[in-house]
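Reminder to self: tokens first, then the designed residues, so the page reads top to bottom the way the pipeline ran.
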């Protein structure tokens, strides 16, 4: 194990020999790190926190810290981080709360850029990109392959659907449609399908065509949302069903 002399690893912490712990890092007694993790310097990992394998965590990041919730009274809640994540400088990930499910989760293969905040009880999927200073309030869900732009705050209890792209500086107060390109000029709008992002992810022309039809029904037709969802369900493929299901289970409404 490579542990810098200035680092503090509490008795009871699980740190495999393959990990590298840089200067002035602090690892709490209930922390479990996976294989081949690198903590560059000045990283704090605390609380009941499990971090998977091959994560690179940059300076001044804090993971598993107490939530910014006045109701929190020191309950033994948890934080979980998956594998192969890149977590850049000054990221903060708060542990869960008892009323919010008790755990904050981050999946695998994510890029969390500098100053990202992931609030208590949030659930971040895998293959996501959270750009600089993207801010998730408590109880936020980010589904797989979603991207949240720089300086974009996401309101409590909002869900960002899979493969969605949120432009920088967008204030998100409602759910963001899967596969959508959503951004703020004077007001938040879904501008249609995230065509470039989906193409880069390997979506076929057939899938893109179906999604294009779904977004036209939802955003460009004269149908109300209920009528549009019924028409979307008539389209072939799982992608159309995912959009319809997402809209119907939304508690905060969706950005259109």
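Designed residues (256 positions):
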């Amino acid at each position: 194990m490579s542990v810098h002399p200035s680092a503090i690893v509490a008795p009871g912490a699980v740190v495999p020999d393959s990990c590298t712990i840089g200067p002035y890092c602090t690892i709490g007694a209930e922390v479990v790190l996976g294989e081949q993790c690198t903590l560059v310097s000045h990283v704090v990992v605390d609380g009941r926190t499990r971090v998977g394998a091959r994560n690179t965590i940059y300076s001044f990041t804090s993971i598993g810290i107490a939530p910014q919730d006045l109701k929190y009274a020191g309950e033994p809640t948890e934080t979980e981080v998956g594998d192969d994540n890149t977590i850049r400088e000054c990221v903060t990930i708060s542990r869960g709360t008892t009323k919010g499910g008790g755990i904050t989760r981050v999946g695998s293969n994510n890029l969390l850029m500098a100053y990202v905040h992931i609030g208590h009880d949030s659930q971040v999927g895998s293959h996501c990109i959270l750009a600089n200073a993207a801010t998730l309030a408590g109880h936020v869900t980010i589904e797989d392959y979603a991207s949240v732009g720089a300086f974009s705050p996401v309101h409590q209890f909002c869900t960002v659907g899979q493969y969605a792209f949120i432009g920088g500086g967008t204030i998100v107060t409602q759910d963001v449609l899967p596969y959508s390109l959503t951004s703020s000029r004077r007001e938040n709008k879904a501008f249609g399908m995230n065509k470039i992002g989906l193409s880069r992810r390997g979506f076929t022309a057939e899938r893109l065509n179906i999604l294009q039809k779904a977004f036209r029904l939802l955003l460009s037709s004269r149908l109300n949302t209920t009528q549009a969802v019924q028409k979307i369900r008539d389209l072939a493929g799982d992608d159309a069903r995912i959009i319809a299901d997402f809209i119907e289970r939304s508690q905060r409404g969706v950005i259109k």
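The longest helix spans residues 205-220.
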